[in-house]
Each structure stands twice: as C-alpha cells, then as structure tokens.
Amino acid sequence: MTEFAPRGKRGLFGAWQSFTVALGLLAGAGIVALLSASLEPEQMLSWGWRIPFFIALPLGGVALWLRVHMEETPSFIKQQQHASLPEEKASLSATFKTILLGICRVMVWSAAGYTYLVIMPTYLQSSLHTGFNQALLIAVISNLGFALTIIPAGILSDKIGRRTVMVIAAVLLLVLALPLLKILQAESSTLLIKGAVVFIAGGVVGLLAGPGPAMLAEMFPTRVRYTGLGLAYSLSNAVFSGCAGLIITGLIKQTGNLDIPAWYVMATAVVSILALMTLNKDDHLRLLDEPTQPKI
C-alpha cells in the first residue's frame, strides 16, 4: 500500500492497513458482545462461541484470493529488473540492525494495543470483578476509539512527520497509562466513565497505528522491505502483544499489584520513545527508496 501511494500520502495509504485491523477487532468484540447478550451462558459455552469463527471463514477466503491476484508494485518490479546478488547479500546484512530498531519503535504500539484493546475485558473481570457483558461493552468502546484516530493520524503524519505524531502518542501513553488505570480501578467509576477512559486509551494507540505502517516501510529499501517490515512488525507483536496476557496476569498473581498493565505499557513506551527519536523529521517527504540514515 505504501509502495503504491503517491509521494506525500504514504501515511494515509499505510493507515488503511491499521484501520482494517481496527475493524477486525471492533467486529470481533462487537459480535461476541451481541452473542453474549442474545444467548444464555450455557448456550454460549456449548455452541455459541463457534459462530464468530464460522463468520470469519469466508473472510479468510477473500483474503487468500486477494493475495493470489494482487499485482506487484512498480517499485518492486523495477528493483527486480536491476537487482544484483552482491547488493542483496550486503543489504541483508545491514538490515538486521534496522529490524531491531523497528521492533523498538513499534514496541509500545504492540504492548498498549493488546493491553487496551484485547486483554482489557479479562483484566476487568478477573482483577476488578466487572461483569462479563459490561467488560465486552468496554472492549467495543476501546476499539471504537482506536478505529476513529487511525486515518486522521496517518494524514497528520504526512503533514508534520511520523516522528512528531508517534513520539507524542508514546509520551501520552507513558504519562496517562497509570492515571487512566486508576480511574478504571476506582469503585466510584460508572460505566460511562470507564467507557470514556478506554475510548481515550484506544484513541492514543490509534495515533501510533496510523503512521506506523508508513514509518516501517520508510525504514527499508524495496529489495528487503517485505522481509524487514514483516519481521519487525511480527516479532514485536509476537513478543509484546502475544505475551502481554501471560506477562500481565502472571505478574498480578505473583505481586498482587493491579497496576501491572500500566507499568507494562509505560516500560515499553520508554523504549519506543528513545527509538522513535532517531527518526528523521523529513522521512515523510523523501522518495520511498531515497536513502536515509537514522540518528542512532
């Protein structure tokens, strides 16, 4: 998507990838909330839980069809015509450090996204004793906030730069993570207040998800872009999203500290802020394959 994007609009084009993720999370949370409200608990446990999977099955077929029929980008075709083996080997050696830097840059995106958008219902039920249906509703609200800020954040990053937007978002998560969690924990907090808290948290994560795809694409030349971007994004999500539930629930059980989700987000925010500060201010203005040197 970023390779097809006109110059100056890579943030917008890349943001649509994140927006589809938001739609998937929103649809998943919404369908489960609807089923939970419509079915008896016994029905939900017996067969109702299978319905979302059957709904997703044809969508998987559509995704497979798109992958088979998708045309290559002009920049990739041009690169293939002029590729040389020594250049390929040299680029792969140099890409490793860039992949590690990419992982650090998206670390807080992965950690905060999973914390606020995916495991929050489990945390609300197990740690704060929130009702199942109420927790699902809160999850829908957080994903709605996430979806609403992605495209505007991508557009904004095309105007003022990826670094500015993403650093501001990471700093907001660092500053707000603990206060927002304290509001959720307060016994006096109503459903409306809790909904507002997770809506804000989801919206801040969307500020990272909007410019994120374009930022990652701009880190790698065409000949290694799929490999570099894919590894940086996937490894970050595998470790800091995939393990978030295990880390958070395990630490809460061991320490009894209900603030662990906030500290987890804050720790990753510190790393990402330092990594994001190495971005050049004008990366969003250059050609996609114009060389750049991160300020390490």
Describe it.
This protein has 296 residues and is mainly alpha-helical. The protein has a single domain, classed as Growth Hormone, Chain: A (Up-down Bundle). Helices cover 77% and strands 0% of the residues. The chain has 13 helices and no strands. Helix 1 runs antiparallel to helix 7, helix 5 runs parallel beside helix 11 and helix 8 packs antiparallel against helix 9. The longest helix has 33 residues.
**Helix and strand pattern:** HHHHHHHHHHHHH
Poorly predicted sequence stretches spanning 5 or more consecutive residues: none
- Number of helix segments? 13
**CATH class placement:** Mainly Alpha
User: Which class best fits the helix and strand makeup?
Assistant: mainly alpha
**How many independent structural domains?**
1
Helical residue percent? over 70%
Q: Any guess at the CATH architecture?
A: Up-down Bundle
Please state roughly what percent of the residues sit in beta strands, choosing from under 5%, 5-15%, 15-25%, 25-35%, 35-45% or over 45%.
under 5%
Short description:
77% of the residues lie in helices and 0% in strands.
Q: Which features does this protein show?
A:
mainly alpha, single chain, Growth Hormone, Chain: A, 13 helices, about 300 residues
List the helices and strands and how they pair.
Layout: H1 10-38, H2 41-46, H3 51-69, H4 74-82, H5 85-117, H6 120-126, H7 132-160, H8 162-185, H9 191-209, H10 212-217, H11 225-241, H12 244-255, H13 260-276
